């Protein structure tokens, strides 16, 4: 479903935003980076089947030239994220270990991640002509971006007295 009106969302608890991706630095050998790329779908499948692991929502993106992937994901907490990453019964730990055996530091395939813990008064969002996407997809709480939620300033800055 696409929301044709402008929508926003609000969070009442901290939320963890996790960005993770891969960049192909050398196209050959194909088998090296393809194996790294194929490691992500089982992780996403596991997380979607088991919401108790803490991932609330995710969006994947792909870019050619240089070949790069990114997953923007929203988590209940950094502890949920870390537990998934370190649990030997989940697919991440084995994939991470295999990456270092296969690629190591040879420069052929890069992997990266960034983690942010966002407090409720430090985030704002707006979506127009969009489905449940990003933060609103994570909260499952689409709110009309009207009245006291109609502008960036009203959504974010008016939550506390604007300083200076």
TrEMBL record:
It comes from the Bacteria. This is Transcriptional regulator. It comes from Deinococcus roseus.
